[in-house]
Sequence to fold (131 residues):
Amino acid sequence: SVTMRLESFKAGAHVLKTGGLKTLLFGKGAGDLPGSLNRAYIETASRLQEKFWKRTHNQYLAWWIGCGLIGLILWLVVLLASWNSIEGSLKLAWWIVAISCLAEDTLESQAGVTFAALAITIFTLVPSSRN
Fold:
């Protein structure tokens, strides 16, 4: 699984590296991500079998490829701005979701969205210790 994730990350980085300045700044487009990654697996001579050619397993890299550096920065601004509007145990849920995006395309699958919603809901219900 770790090797698969590294190969997926390598394919994603290849898309950015070979896509030129336009891809770096504006991305490939969300709908073009699967095709771009498939070509990258071929071009990098990935050791993965084709049935394991998945997305990048990194939400931030996926957004960079799909939306460009501009889209990634906008997402990070929203993510970081949300930190200031939460308190108490909800900050733990924020960290759980933010870190899970490093190892998975968390917000691009039903399971990931459910995980994020569940984490946020559970930690919202935990009473904060206010005086």
